[in-house]
Write a structure and sequence with these properties.
The structure is a single chain. By secondary structure, the chain is an alpha/beta fold. Among the domains are: about 1-40 and about 190-245 and about 310-364, 3-Layer(aba) Sandwich (Rossmann fold), CATH 3.40.50.720; about 80-170, no CATH class. The chain is about 35% helix and about 20% strand. It contains twelve helices and 17 strands. Strands 8-7-13-14-15-12-16 form a seven-stranded mixed sheet. Strands 10-2-1-11-17 form a five-stranded parallel sheet, with helices on one face. Strand 7 and strand 8 (about 90-95) form a beta hairpin. Helix 4 crosses helix 5 (about 130-155). This is UDP-galactopyranose mutase.
Length: about 375
C-alpha cells in the first residue's frame, strides 16, 4: 500500500516505522520544519540540549513499549523530581510526608501522615471535578497552597470547572518518595529525542516531507491507499462543528552564563507567583556537563499550537461529533493526542500507535 502519514511526532513516526517494516511505502508529512513533534530537542547556541516545546520526561510501566523504543535509542537513567514553591520556600511535590513535615513543622510517621490526610480531607460523596478530587484527598489548605492557582494558570479555568481526571493524575504520598513518577522504567533518550526519531524514520520505505500542509498533499494527484492522521481532528474536517478547545503554551528559553546549576531539581512549580507555571533546567534531565545552564519558563495561553485537550463535558460532546465522522472513515486512521482529543503520555501514544498499526494491517 501507499500510505500517507500526517504528523512526524510519536504517533506518526511509530506508525510509519511499523508499516514500513511490513513492506508498505510511506510518506510522512509535517507542517513544522522538523520531525519529533513536541518532543523535538536541539542543542542551543551554547551547546546545551534543550527541549524546544518544554520538558518531555519519559516514563512507563510497559516493558513492551520501553523495549520497543530501546531499538531506536540508548538511555540515560533519570528520575524526575519537582518542587513546589509556597510562600518563597520549596517543598517536595507531589505532596509527601516530607512536604507535610516541612510545611507544618511536624514530625509525622507514615501512619501519622495517613491520619493527617484523613483529618483534613473534605469527603465527597460524588467526585466529579478536579476540585473534588483534591479536597477529597488532601483538604482545603493544601489545595489552596499547591493546586488551586496552578490549575487556574495552566487551564485558564477554576478546578471546579475541570473534569476529575486532571487532578487524579497527581498522587498523594504518605512516605518520603520525592520522585514525580514511580513508573518501572524512567529514562531519557541518551542522545536526545530527535536522534531517536531520526532512527525511527530511517527506513528505505519511508519518505519525509517537512514544512508541508496535509491539505496540499491531499490535493495532489498522488494516490494513497490509507491515511494515518495525527493532527487535530477538527482541522481534518475543516472545523465543521466548530473548533475544539485546546490549551497552548508559550515558552521562554533563557541561557545563564557562568551558572553551572540554576535550581535544585529538574522542575520547580510556581503555583501562586508569576504568570508562568514552572521552570525546567535541562541539564538535570539530560545529565549534560557544562559550565553554564539553560532553562525554560512555561506560560499557559489560549493562543498558539494546540497542546492540551481541555477536559470538560461540553468539549467531550463536541469531540464525539467529530469522532462519529472519523468512525465512518474506512481509509483513514486517527491516532494520537490531538486526533483522539485525549491527554496521552508519550508511552501511551506509542501504545496507541502500535495498536492502530495492528488494526490497519488486520484490515488488509
Amino acid at each position: 500500500m501507499n500510505i500517507l502519514i500526517i504528523g512526524a511526532g510519536f504517533a506518526g513516526s511509530v506508525c510509519a516505522r511499523e508499516l514500513a517494516e511490513s513492506g508498505h511505502q510511506i510518506l510522512v508529512v509535517d507542517r513544522r520544519d522538523h520531525i519529533a513533534g513536541n518532543a523535538f530537542d536541539i542543542k542551543d547556541e551554547y551547546g546545551i540540549l534543550i527541549h524546544q516545546y518544554g520538558p518531555h520526561i519519559f516514563h512507563t510501566n510497559s516493558e513492551r513499549i520501553f523495549n520497543y523504543l530501546s531499538k531506536y535509542t540508548e538511555w540515560y537513567k533519570y528520575e524526575h523530581r519537582v518542587r513546589g514553591v509556597v510562600n518563597g520556600k520549596e517543598y517536595p511535590f507531589p505532596i509527601n510526608r516530607d512536604t507535610l513535615n516541612q510545611l507544618y513543622d511536624l514530625n509525622l510517621t507514615e501512619e501519622q501522615a495517613t491520619e493527617f490526610y484523613e483529618k483534613v480531607r473534605e469527603p465527597k460523596d460524588t467526585v466529579k471535578t478536579s476540585e473534588d478530587v483534591v479536597l477529597n484527598s488532601v483538604g482545603r489548605d493544601l489545595y489552596e497552597k499547591f493546586f488551586l492557582n496552578y490549575t487556574k494558570k495552566q487551564w485558564g479555568l477554576d478546578p471546579s470547572e475541570l473534569k476529575a481526571g486532571v487532578a487524579a493524575r497527581i498522587p498523594t504520598r504518605t512516605n518520603s518518595d520525592d520522585r514525580y513518577f514511580t513508573d518501572t522504567y524512567q529514562a531519557m533518550p541518551l542522545h536526545g529525542y530527535t536522534t531517536m526519531f531520526e532512527n525511527l524514520l530511517n527506513h528505505p520505505n519511508i519518505s519525509v516531507k517537512l514544512s508541508t500542509e496535509f491539505k496540499d498533499v491531499l490535493n495532489d494527484d498522488q494516490h494513497f491507499d490509507h491515511i494515518v492522521y495525527t493532527g487535530p481532528i477538527d482541522a481534518f474536517y475543516d472545523f465543521k462543528f466548530g473548533h475544539l478547545p485546546y490549551r497552548s503554551l508559550r515558552f521562554e528559553h533563557e541561557h545563564l552564563e557562568n551558572t553551572e546549576q540554576y535550581q535544585s531539581v529538574g522542575t520547580i512549580n510556581y503555583p501562586n507567583d508569576f504568570d508562568f507555571t514552572r521552570i525546567t533546567e535541562f541539564k538535570h534531565l539530560t545529565g549534560q556537563k557544562h559550565s553554564s545552564t539553560s532553562i525554560v519558563r512555561e506560560y499557559p495561553t489560549d493562543a498558539g499550537d494546540p497542546y492540551y485537550p481541555i477536559p470538560r463535558d461540553e468539549n467531550e460532546k463536541l469531540f464525539k461529533q467529530y469522532q462519529a465522522l472519523a468512525n465512518n472513515e474506512e481509509k483513514v486512521t486517527f491516532v494520537g493526542r490531538l486526533a483522539e482529543y485525549r491527554y496521552y503520555n508519550m508511552d501511551q501514544v506509542v501504545g496507541a500507535a502500535l495498536n492502530a498499526v495492528d488494526k490497519i494491517l488486520g484490515q488488509k
